[in-house]
Hints:
Low-confidence stretches: none
Radius of gyration: 18 Å
Strand content: 35-45%
Mean pLDDT: 92
Order of helices and strands: EEEEEEEHE
Structural class: mainly beta
Number of domains: 2
Strand order of the largest sheet: 1-2-3-8
Helix content: 10-25%
Amino acid sequence: MKPKRLSRTVIYENPWVNLYVDKVQFPGGRIIEKHHILEFEKEAVAVIVENAQGQVLLVHAYRYATNSIEWEVPAGIVEPDEPIIEAAKREAREESGYETEDHELIYTFYPINGISIKENGL
């Protein structure tokens, strides 16, 4: 048996992220009155680019939320109907200026999977 949503309250919705509060009944009957859900309407991709010397490409990213400039792998939103590998190539090129080759999908996951979903994930 899976958890069952009993009700949903919309807190915030926009094209980037939605925030909901669900009332959820878990197996065994336990009810959580306020289970927060972040829904991301757009898929994202992160790119690990390694050169022949084993060095990994990092780019500077300005992050308002942490008031910092961070070193990160190139990443961004997947455009509608864009294949994941094409999005990875594009993001690497847009953020670093480098063309990349020999691509392979390594892994897919839900970040913060206890509270986040892709659109229509529940």
